[in-house]
Specification:
Residues 1-159 form the Obg domain. This protein is α/β, with parallel strands linked by helices and 378 residues long. Helices cover 22% and strands 23% of the residues. The chain is built from six helices and 16 strands. The two termini are 32 Å apart. It binds guanosine-5'-triphosphate. Guanosine-5'-triphosphate binds next to α1.
Length: 378
């Protein structure tokens, strides 16, 4: 199963500037020697891998990217200025496909890596190159060539940092909508009716994480009942799980504390059956639908559930529908993810040091050295 975020974009490199036709002014000679300069080259379009991005949703708003045209040549043998390149930042992990040929032309795997996806046109020659001995045919010049244009499909395998667990109706999709700045369109999903709800939670401009609910996780999921087993594979890659429970379950003959605790345990059993390691993942309990329980009952109910479950990890009480208290959950989740990333990086560096190889230097990767450049035509 793949969770793929997709976008299609159009890239057009700049045309080369035209060569210039011009003549020296000389006394008594109406047309002096040809001195038209060359046109500048057009700018190219590049994709640049950026580890701070995690989805392709922004390409829904901006789909066309052009690089600048080269300037035309000028008289007095002056060259036109080259057009500026255009850089498009894409998340690390983006696969680039040429729509016309359906060929993969690049795979952006390292931060700072650059891929030229449309080469700028060459500047044309000015007439200074066409001097003849008689000076009779100096009106020749060549126009700039056209910059390449391409339609590209970008595909990103989404890795959700935060997974949302819970019984049907606990409010998972409502929670995702409440906290997301954007919801990526997910393609290449084998089920037509059951899509995971994905959201990008943007804490600050360049600090965000992807949250995904895990639909269809019902009892028996670990044995393959329903579609749960497929989603459980995803949970293995989540760095943090939010376990949502309905704090106001509707069952007439069962005490709500017992019902909530039972539902939490039912999900835990599914996780354990699939992979006992899943129970060791950080999992925070989120009591949802707090608006449905009278305030004086709420605290006691939450406390009783925590006690019944012997819960020691963090817990939150929220109302997804009114967005009450949902933001603190996200802020703490972001802090948790930042800490996990730092720890992972340190572990990689230590492992590399132990192996005698230099560890990855995150800062240095952003400097897009020539060695990081690749050409889609190469
Ligand atoms: N009163 C109240 N209702 C809520 C809250 N959050 C969700 N709901 C309602 O609960 C119902 C289920 O919410 P969903 O977000 O669809 O639940 P889900 O967990 O995604 O459900 P599945 O898609 O079946 O797995 C909807 O009618 C929501 O409007 C809340 O904070 N308060």
């Amino acid at each position: 199963m793949k969770l793929v975020d997709e976008a299609e974009i159009l890239v057009k490199a700049g045309n080369g500037g035209d060569g210039c036709v011009s003549f020296r002014r000389e006394k008594f000679i109406p047309l002096g020697g040809p001195n038209g300069g060359d046109g500048g080259n057009g700018g190219s379009v590049w994709l640049v891998a950026d580890e701070n991005l995690n989805t392709l949703v922004d390409f829904r708003h901006e789909r066309k990217f052009n690089a600048q045209r080269g300037q035309n040549g000028m008289g007095s043998q002056m060259y036109g200025r080259g057009g500026d390149d255009t850089e498009i930042r894409v998340p690390v992990g983006t696969v680039v496909i040429n729509v016309a040929t359906d060929e993969i032309i690049g795979d952006m795997t390292r931060h700072g890596e650059r891929l030229r996806v449309a080469q700028g046109g060459r500047g044309g020659l000015g007439n200074m190159h066409f001097k003849s001995s008689t000076n009779r045919t100096p009106r020749r010049f060549t126009p700039g060539t056209e910059g390449e244009s391409r339609e590209l499909r970008l595909e990103l395998k989404l890795l959700a940092d935060v997974g949302l667990l819970g019984f049907p109706n606990a409010g998972k999709s409502t929670f995702v909508r409440a906290v997301s700045a954007a919801t990526p369109r997910v393609a290449d999903y084998p089920f037509t009716t059951l899509y995971p709800n994905l959201g990008v939670v943007r804490i600050e401009q360049d600090r965000s994480f992807v949250i995904a609910d895990i639909p269809g996780l019902i009892e028996g999921a670990a044995e393959g009942a329903g579609l749960g087993v497929l989603f459980l594979r995803h949970v293995q890659r989540n760095r943090l799980l939010l376990h949502l429970v309905d704090v106001a379950p509707f069952e007439l003959d069962v005490d709500p504390v017992t019902q909530i605790a039972n539902e939490v345990r039912a999900i835990e059993r599914e996780l354990a059956k699939f992979d006992p390691e899943l129970l060791r993942k950080p999992r925070w309990l989120v009591f949802n639908k707090a608006d449905l329980v009278p305030e004086d009952e709420l605290d006691a109910r939450v406390a009783a559930v925590l006690e019944a479950l012997d819960w020691t990890q963090p817990h939150f009480v929220v109302s997804a529908i009114s967005k009450t208290n949902t933001w603190p959950v996200c802020q703490q989740a972001m802090q948790h993810l930042d800490a996990v990333r730092v720890a992972e990086l340190e572990a990689t560096e230590e492992a590399a040091a132990a192996a005698g190889a230099p560890g990855p230097a995150p800062g240095s990767a952003s400097d897009a050295s020539a060695g990081n450049d690749r050409d889609a035509n190469a």
